[in-house]
Amino acid sequence: MSFTFIKGLFLNPAKLSITAFIIIIAELVLNILIVERVPYTEIDWKAYMQECEGFLNGTLDYSQLRGDTGPLVYPAGFVYIYSMFYFLTNQGQNIKLAQYIFIGIYLLQLHFVFEIYKKTRKVPPYVLLITILTSYRIHSIHVLRLFNDPIAVLFLYIALNYFIESKWNLGSIFYSLGVSIKMNILLYAPALFFFYLVNLGLKDTIKQIFLCGLIQLILGLPFLLVAPISYLRGSFDIGRVFNHTWTVNYRFLDVKVFENTYFHITLLAIHILLLMIFLPMCIQYFKSYCRLRYVQKQVQPQIDAKNVENKRKAKMMKEKLKVQENEEKLTKDQEEFLNSFESMLQKTSNTNAKKKKVADESEKLHYSINFDIISQLFILPMFLTNFIGVVCARSLHYQFYSWYFHSLPYLLWSTNLSVIVRFLILALIEFCWNTYPSTNATSAMLHVCHLIILYNIYKKTSTELKVASKVE
């Protein structure tokens, strides 16, 4: 194993497959150690089980489904999944088994995250290695707290992979399933809507939206038939006021200001404003994505046909060389030639040279274009739209870190910031999320880090689009 190969594993995004496998194995071991050695802390799991127990006992009125932490505030998909956990874990009593289930969920999520990073080839493997393995908070969220956020995010990453593969129906189904577990997945909706529109046109966009809505209707039907208002208010309550005690991003605000309706309206206005600023850029990216996918459809069959033809020619060359070697072995001169050790080495050298030449010619005749890298034009707008939602969130609780943690390296490597500054921002964000309870300083610092990322993405993408428009 050469130094160049090892170096590539850490620095070359094209080599991420091997590094990703190493990370997943390391994460498996690390998470098992965490489960076995770090005490579990009860926060919401018991309440989840109580809410699902009410459903399993026949209660279909959402206003009557409650736990120790309050009423049920998640859509129907959450109820079904955690009801399954209820049965698997002996009515929620077998916490250790639940933690191992969540290890599986986290590793599966990592697989789909890595699939995105492998296709986009944007971020060096060492960045993901360092970021993922060293995050205390993200491991805590997944295997020590058992929140529903990671499950919703898992379905989201599955959906993104299907969208990259142009499997629209499957993408829409898994996206809607993510929304059915926790509505934060709707933060991706503005970008997804325009992605549908640019790629599919209005008619098929309406079909995909209908499919997403149909999934919600089917899942929520038992509750909608009994108490539709209670279900809609409980599972999709956009006006819910968060508890200031748990806030990570607005600790520096007075409680009265934090809970003030005008403060919430202001944040919503800022959210809409930022979307209006960034969505035109996102649409340009989507248009470029659509055009390049069209080019791929036209060119790829020709490339494949040419490679098949070249492969056939290379095979014929190898067979011809093999025949020549066999013929040489049958001659008297060749037999005498083999009696000499020195001559034998010379023959081997010449034969290998011929084989190498054939192999080199075969390699030269192989054509390929890495169309997967086009995925960058889809992934950045999606991650960016979600990030804007996080930046403008009325409150961020500790489990919300999972909403955007795995997209942070991608966002930072989409800026022109130096590598040192990028890692500094990642470290500061991790520090803010690891500080409990949050402080005025950490809350302010989190906002500063978010705004630096947002500004630098805007700066880089706007410059690139200006250059692209001049070229066109």
Question: Concise description?
Answer:
By secondary structure, the protein is mainly α. It is 74% helix and 1% strand. It is built from 19 helices and two strands.
What's the layout of helices and strands?
Layout: H1 3-11, H2 16-37, H3 45-56, E1 66-67, E2 70-71, H4 76-88, H5 95-120, H6 125-133, H7 136-144, H8 149-164, H9 168-179, H10 189-226, H11 228-235, H12 255-258, H13 261-330, H14 332-339, H15 341-364, H16 376-391, H17 408-412, H18 419-434, H19 440-471
Antiparallel strand pairs: 1-2
Helix pairs in contact: 2-5, 2-6, 3-4, 5-8, 8-9, 9-10, 10-11, 10-13, 10-16, 13-15, 13-16, 16-19, 18-19
Helix count, DSSP H or I runs of 4 or more residues: 19
From the alpha carbons, calculate the radius of gyration and give it in angstroms: 28 Å
Main beta sheet strand tally, sense and closure: 2 strands, antiparallel
User: Which consecutive residue ranges, at least 5 long each, have pLDDT under 50?
Assistant: none
Write down the domain tally: 1
Multimeric state: single chain
Average pLDDT confidence is 89
How far do the termini sit from each other?
45 Å
Membrane topology: Multi-pass membrane protein
Coiled coil: 307-336
Keywords: Coiled coil, Endoplasmic reticulum, Glycosyltransferase, Membrane, Transferase, Transmembrane, Transmembrane helix
Transmembrane segments: 16-35, 72-88, 100-117, 146-164, 184-202, 209-231, 262-283, 377-398, 410-429
